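Thread title: Can someone regenerate the structure for this chain?

I was given the following input by a collaborator and told the matching C-alpha cells would be attached. They weren't. Posting the sequence so someone can regenerate them.
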Amino acid sequence: MADELREMWDFADLTATEGRFRAKLAEPLDDGRRAEVLTQLGRVAGLRGDFASGHALVDSAEALAPADSAGRVRVLLERGRLLRSSGAAAESLPLFTAAFVLAGHRGDSYLAVDAAHMAALVDKVEEWTQRGVELARASGDAQVRGWVGPLLNNLGWAHFEGGRFEEALGVFQQALVAREQSVGNPHEVEVARYAVAKTLRMLGRAGEAVELMKVAVGWAREAGVADGWFHEELAEDYSAAGMRAEAAEQAEVALGMVEGDVARVERLKALVADRPVVEWPR
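Best answer:
Regenerated them for you:
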C-alpha cells in the first residue's frame, strides 16, 4: 500500500509542505483522514523544533483516529518521531514498535516499513533494518520498495561509524543498487555512490573511490547541483591516491560551498596548501 500523503512532502520546503497539508485539511474529510493530515502537520512542527505544537497537533489527531486505522498508525509514528527528535529516544521505541505491529495488522506496508526504519534509528539497527527490507522487497508497490535504499543506507552508516568498514561497504553497495533500481531522486543515487566511495577510501582503495566520485561530481555539474560533500570527498580520494594537484583543485571548489563547519574548512585548506609547487624552467 502506497502512502498518498508522502507525495505532499518537500522536506526542503516546510512552508510549502505545511500549506499543502492545511489546504487538505480544509477539504471535506472523515475523522480518520483528518487525523492523518493533522499528524503530518505535527511532523512539520517537529522538524522546525516546535515540539509543543507538534504534540498538540498529534493530540488532536489521536482524539479523532479510530483505534484500527491508518490515522492511529500515524499518531504512533509521529508521536515517536517528536519524542526521538526532542531527545527522548527510549520513550519513542515502544511507539515505533506499536506502529509497526498495527500497520502490519492492517496490511499497510508503507507505514510498517517507515516504523521499522524509525525503530532501527533507536535500537537493534540490524534486526529492524532486516524487517523493513524484507517487507519492502516483498511489496509490489514501487513506493514501498523505495524504502530499501534508505534502510540500507542507515545500516551502512551504523557500521561505518562503528569502524566496521568491510560490512559497511557491502551494505552501501546494496543500497546503491537499490537506489539505481528505484524511480526517484537521482541525487540520492549519487549520495549512495558517495557512501561507497568514502568507505573504499577508508579501506585503502582510493583509486576505486576516485572513479566513483568522478561520476558523482560529473552528475552534479551536469545537473546544476552544488554539493560540497561530493567535491570534498573527491579531494580526499585524490589526496589518498597521491594526486595532490587534483586534490587541491577539488578542495578549492568544495571550500566555496562549505560554511560554518570549522573542521571541514581547515581540512580543505590543508588540502589546497598541499598543492605541489610548479618548478618554472630556468
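Residues 278-282 have pLDDT under 50 and may be disordered.
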